[in-house]
Amino acid sequence: MSVHLPTALSGCVLRPWRPADRPNLLRLADNRRVWRNMTHTFPHPYTDADADLWLEIAANPGASLQLAVDCEGEAVGGIGAIAGEGIQVATARFGYWLGEPFWGRGIATAAATALADHIERERLFARLEAQVFAWNPASMRVLEKAGFTREAVLRCSATKDGRLIDTVLYARVFPET
């Protein structure tokens, strides 16, 4: 099933990744400031092989969702919900990134809201979770604007960029009706 979702921003949609996105993916993902706010699965430097692998993964997401954030016909970042397994099957890990030239324009908030609302409408998961590094208050604001609730501070829970750091757990829950 191919998902195409409008956002609240004119000209900005969520859509499947495609091979033609490769140049933008390489240009925007190979950025230390982007990498610094991502999990260990997001490489730095971001190479041709990394882009090829990502496009392959995104083309076959299984129960997960992996979409490009498209503004004016160009992929400017990514957003997704990674399906849990076992007893966590109703929970998905929610995340997003934007190329640095697109920060501060409301794009991440529009994308996060559109995807979370779609997941709720379609009842794809009962719970979305996102962990944010304590040094990233902008991402916390994005999640709050997208309807997520701050649930906990997980002290000394991550090592990133040579530092032991707290993460902040956010969740958006869709109770059964």
From TrEMBL:
Extract the Pfam families matched here: Acetyltransf_3 (PF13302)
At the top level of its lineage, which domain of life is listed?
Bacteria
GO MF terms on file? acyltransferase activity, transferring groups other than amino-acyl groups
Q: Which Gene3D superfamilies match?
A: 3.40.630.30
Cross-referenced InterPro entries: Acyl_CoA_acyltransferase, GNAT_dom
Domain N-acetyltransferase intervals: 12-175
Which PANTHER family does this entry report, sorted A to Z? ACETYLTRANSFERASE-RELATED, N-ACETYLTRANSFERASE DOMAIN-CONTAINING PROTEIN
Protein name, per record: GNAT family N-acetyltransferase
